[in-house]
Amino acid sequence: MMCRSRKRPRTIARTDRSSHSARSHTKMTSSGRLRQAEIPMLMSEQADVPLGEVDPEIVRIRRIGKRLFDVANCIVTLGSTAPDSSSAGALSASIETAFCYSVPLSGEPVVVTDTRNDQMLARHRLVVGAPYVRFYAAHPIYNQDRVLIGAVNLIDYAPRIFRDSDRQMLADLAALVEREMQVRSMSALQLDLQRKNKSLRRKSLIDPLIGTWNRGAIMRILTIEAIRCDKAGAPLSLIVADLDYFKKINDTYGHPAGDAVLVKVASRLRSCIRPQEALGRYGGEEFLVVLPGSSINTAMAVAERMRRAIASQPEAIGDTTLNLTISAGIASTDLFPSATTEELISRADVALYAAKDAGRNCVMRAQPDLS
Known about the structure:
The protein is α+β, with helices and mostly antiparallel strands.
């Protein structure tokens, strides 16, 4: 019968184990075959890590347990399913792990000093057959919610005594595993919290309707790029683009239709810029494009590409086809080398109004004489 922590196990002398270890030094018979009694010892020497067990902290604890108790192996089982036996590993580790998982998980410490005298394990196939497990002990592992999740298991191939001090050390070893699992759980919670915070932060910077940077984010990007370009001696250009006659679209077809148009316009504008450039919603139907390292001529080319992308493809609202256009104003440190970001936006706004006055669907650059 299995011995529990409150029942003192029957004492088995260790002379059997000692003679077994001594015999295992002679690994081959005269015929060159391994002695059957030596198979468990050799298999244990081939690998310390059970099949599928690759966690370095758990491996370290297992190694401590194996040396501390001087057993063939110390195995940590988690859950009710053994690791996948298809992965690379020693045969002994697979068999020993399978044995530990085959023993029902108990919420109390278990000590079997001689498996052949235990009611449940005496007929186990790995007890009556190779590798002939003779000693087994286990201490339960609980998670931080006091849910039973596994056990620290000791296996040997000879009966042995297991004193109260051994029980305490096995409990201490299980506590180390529990602490490691708690630390890991806390780390996972922290990583999850960081991911959620990062996601929330990103959401706070994205316009919820059209998916571009919102006003606060695009202004921050403009400030950062202005400082970077100034230090690098590179130009900085920006585009302020406005969808023509957008109010008429909202008034005629309703705000949902206007929102759908904005989403499509934003998508086309985004397709006209490079990854290092930024597009943001500056106002209702107004967009701000930040072009770090771009000259005024490059910015004009980008704005013209945007204008053509919008004008070249009409949008359908119900049975109606709308010919959309944008007007754009450009400002650059090429022409305003000492301008602040606010002054650049103001200059681009003036150029935008000039484009509106010129009949819309056109691009204008800010000039020092424009005011």
